[in-house]
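Hey, resending since the last one bounced:
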Amino acid sequence: MKNIVVSGVLVVLILVNSDFGFSQTNKELSELKREIEALKAGQIAIQKDLAEIKNLLLQKELQAIKDMFQAKQFPTPAPGQAPPAEPQIVMVSVDGGAVKGDKNAKVTLIEFTDYQCPFCSRHFREVMPQIETDYVKTGKVKYVLRDFPIESIHPNAFKAAEAANCSGEQAKYWEMHDRLFANQNALAAKELPGHAEALGIDVAKFRQCIDSAKYAAKVRKDFADAQKAGATGTPTFFLGLTDSKGSEVKAVKRIVGAQSYSAFKDAIDSLLATQN
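The structure tokens again:
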């Protein structure tokens, strides 16, 4: 009888402890579940905030580009009003510009560019190679490149322009020009020495040139000359007859934006025809 009672007590104790253990486990699982749900909710909220921030930044960038290119370069005529006429002949300075082609070519094509501008990059990749093949390398066109970094929307463009000019001291101007356009996502000041090193440029001299802002005044002059000629965005091109005796070109045609090759071909051929 005594053994039965003891056994009964043990059974009761085991059941009580078992229920308590299950109860504790269920409680811990419930708390863990609540914590996981809270973490998920927090993660979703963070992702939503990041998406909204990204969208706001994108909208700001697009609006800035839209305002610049539409309001300034491509104004919409009022109802019944004729489209804006081709700009009158303007004198465009080529002073200090990087040159490709025969300096005595009959026609000069001047480009004002921005290394962070996506439209400039598109022109560099898709159109300029054909212009070089058909007109620059054949001696028909002298190509002049000048800087027009629009820092309000492209904060890395100014230093990138300086980098190209500093590279020119070591006969690597065009190599750096090409590399900068091929790496538009890596134009921060700290990344420029890496581009110089990749091109075999003396990095110490390059750094000294960049840090001293040696070509900053030159880039600002390019910018001022672009504005004086009527450029408001990039890329902007001016086409005119070469004046081998002066530092200015009488531009009779302006081409704005990343236009097709045919737009350049038609304009160049028309101007060349007047010289035959």
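The chain has two domains: 1-75, 90-273.

Sorry for the duplicate.
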